[in-house]
Amino acid sequence: MVRSGKIAWRSPSNIALVKYWGKKGFQLPLNPSVSMTLTNCYTETTIEFNHKNNLKNPAFSLLFQGKKNVPFESKIRSFIEVVSKEFPALSTLNLDISTHNSFPHSAGIASSASSLSALALCLLSIKNKVLGINMNEEDFLKKASYLARLGSGSASRSVYGGWVLWGETSGIEGSSDDYAIPLSNQVDEKFNSYYDSILIVSSGEKAISSSQGHELMESNPYKESRVNTGRFNAINLIDALKCCNEKVFGEIVEYEAANLHAMFLTSHPSFILIKPETLQIINKLKQFRDETKLEFTFTLDAGPNIHLLYSEDIRDKMLLFINTDLTALCEDGKWIDDKVGMGPILIDSN
Ligand code: PMV
Fold first, then answer.
1. Better-scored residue on pLDDT, 105 or 329
2. CA-derived radius of gyration, the chain
3. Which helix (H) or strand (E) is 39 found in, with range?
4. Looking at the predicted structure, is the pLDDT value of residue 295 above 80?
5. What does the pLDDT read at residue 106?
6. Which DSSP string do the residues of 183-252 spell out, in sequence order?
7. Among 18, 28, 109, 154, which is best to mutate for testing ligand 1, by the most ligand atoms less than 8 A from CB?
8. Which residues' Cβ are closer than 6 Å to ligand 1?
9. Ligand 1 pocket: which of 18, 20, 215 to mutate (most atoms <8 Å of CB)?
10. Residue 107: which pLDDT band, with cuts at 50, 70 and 90?
11. 332, 217, 313, 320: which is closest to 266 by C-alpha?
12. Of 101, 323, 104, 116, which is closest to residue 204 (Cα–Cα)?
């Protein structure tokens, strides 16, 4: 048995095109979701572990961006407790965790997908090291996705590069509510050069956490219709990715963003996450598309920022439009230049 060592993973964030909103059971989705894994928005997590004879519960220290962070520490504590049910030997380890994001905390970009997937990958690597288990890559990633999902649903999708599906979906073999699966071999090459220009309208804290939001779906009068819409859109979006139908892809993506924010408006209590600039940017984008006929689309996460999605072919035109017309509506002119990514990387294993 290995008694001490060090593991570090870099894991990316992802943007959902078909949204996960609402849970059942323990961290299981009401409907399937489809996402694109990013490149430049990622978390790097390093864990140094040591076996301690007298430990009954896993002990850990946490540095987030080099500093103590109490709210994040309690999220990590609950996650480690859940993972130690799957991996009892974790209870005999002391873990020194250090984690940082490539994007500023105040960028308004959700970090749970990248941070919890990075942590799940580290904990699984430690388990395999300590117990001397050899897993093939496919089994390793499936298990890492399963563990990441126990911490944050969207994190289950960050374990894979490219385009990813989480949730049982009719007609898609291997799809599951328990873990995500990669779609990359089912996606037309054009989508593998997709960009995500993230227009930062506001970097402030969200008025409502995603766990509170998921819970509000329980009493949302449109819950059933949302679940059916999500299921239907997941199947059709995957078809559009396969056949390279950017028009249909864009229609579904924009409908999903609107539908997610409609769920916020129809929750009890209702909440609004978009800002006036979000709507101004959307109107400008629609007008630009009407004038140019360019095939781009956009989505929103649970916040006011806009993810502008487009292929390599129209990159120059989009960059020009962002710089001349859109940055003026962004907070301090900020936007993040990102694109489809390859998935997590193991950066240290000792
Ligand atoms: O993974 P969570 O619990 O933070 O929920 C993510 C919810 C959305 O970001 C709004 C949608 C999604 O599928 O990522």
1. 329
2. 20
3. strand 33-51
4. yes
5. 65
6. -GGGS-GGGGG-EEEEE-S--SPPSS-HHHHHHHGGG-TTHHHHHHHHHHHHHHHHHHHHHT-HHHHHHH
7. 154
8. 16, 19-21, 33, 110, 112, 152-154, 210, 301-302
9. 20
10. low
11. 217
12. 104
Query: How confident is the model over 61-93, as pLDDT tens digits?
Result: 999 999 998 888 899 999 999 999 988 888 889
The pair of structure tokens assigned to 313 is 């072919």
Under the banding of pLDDT at 50, 70 and 90, the label for residue 208 is: confident
Say what the pLDDT of residue 52 is: 82
Structural domains in the chain?
Answer: 4-186 (3.30.230.10), 189-339 (3.30.70.890)
Whose alpha carbon is nearest atom 10 of ligand 1?
A: 302
Q: Which amino acid is at 190?
A: K
CA distance 317 to 324: 11
pTM over 0.85: yes
Dist CA 217 CA 232 (whole Å): 18
* Dihedral Cα 285, 291, 292, 297, nearest 10 deg: 30
- The region, left, alpha or beta by phi > 0 then psi within -120 to 50, assigned to residue 293 is left
Cβ-contact 6, 46 below 8 angstroms: yes
CA–CA dist 311, 236 (Å, integer): 19
CA 303 to CA 257: how far, in whole Å?
A: 11
